[in-house]
Amino acid sequence: MKIVFIVNSKNNRAVKVLPELERYYRQTSPGRAQFLSTQRKKHAIELAREAAENGCDYMIAVGGDGTLHEVINGLLQSNLPARRYPAIGLLPCGSANDFARTARVSDSLEDLLNLIQTHTTQKIDLGQILLKQTGEIRYFINIAGAGLGGEVVERMEQSSGLLGPDLNYFWHIFAGFLRYIKKEVTCTGGRWQWKGRLLQMAVANGRCFGNALCVAPDARLGDGLFQIAIFGDLSIWDYLKNLGKLKKGVRIDHPEVTYHNAGEVMLQSEDPCHIEADGEYVGLAPATLKVLPEAIVFLMPPEV
């Protein structure tokens, strides 16, 4: 059994847990675990692709949602057939850990080791994004967002980050609310279509994004469908008034908020509508997003 840990070296919490991981496997299973640390942005994509092609049984992301996102994209960019994919795991060390909330994956090293030892896994879906302008394909495990969230992430990636990850995120959210101009968007999924001025859209495999905002309370990781939550021509005040409901996972009852299900969604906009996935910037609409049913095996508790 070979286990590869891909560690976000810029994440202080991930770096602190690394010596404990190395010590455990040195004492219990010498030679079975490999530890790879990222050196730059998107490096985890390269590391995951190479590790998958070199062969491993488990591939564990040690970091936040962004690290897991890169590991997933690296795996699916590999030349392996899906039947030979390693089981994917997560030791959540990020500032938000939104996917871990849906999967009920704890930040306990002991819990992770127990999942590995017992091979406690489930098959779960992934999302695929095809950007029409560039032909680029990206994958996501949690939620893809369009509108305000995409613009916030794009600006964050261009910023210096001097404020630190947590403060930087909240500053850009606040600034985004002040300067964001709603986009004219058409979204089509199956037998339904939505058209109008968009504040924010979440195409959800998982339930939470934006640091514990449960935007898609009915999303399930293995049902073969996205839950799409659309916040249309909503005022900033109305959005802020409903933050408490989003934190609790309660559907928002408002004429400009709608919920849909679909296995594939087409997103079109004449305006520059930004798209993010798992908190990473992807690009601009138009795009097609579709579910890849039971695409990977994931280390997670059975009750999810």
Could you characterize the architecture of this molecule?
There is one protein chain. Helix 2 (43-54) packs across helix 3 (65-77) and helix 6 (148-158) crosses helix 7. The strands form three sheets. This protein has a six-stranded antiparallel sheet with strand order 6-5-16-13-8-9. The chain is built from nine helices and 16 strands. It has helices spanning 12-28, 43-54, 65-77, 98-103, 109-118, 148-158, 165-179, 236-241, 243-248, and strands at residues 3-7, 33-37, 58-63, 87-92, 121-131, 137-140, 143-147, 183-189, 192-198, 200-204, 226-231, 257-262, 264-269, 274-277, 280-284, 287-299. The model has no long low-confidence stretch (mean pLDDT 92). With 304 residues, the protein is of the alpha+beta class. A hairpin with a 2-residue loop joins strand 14 and strand 15. The chain starts with a strand and ends in a 5-residue tail after the last strand.
Summary tags:
304 residues, 32% helix, alpha+beta, globular, 33% strand, six-stranded antiparallel β-sheet
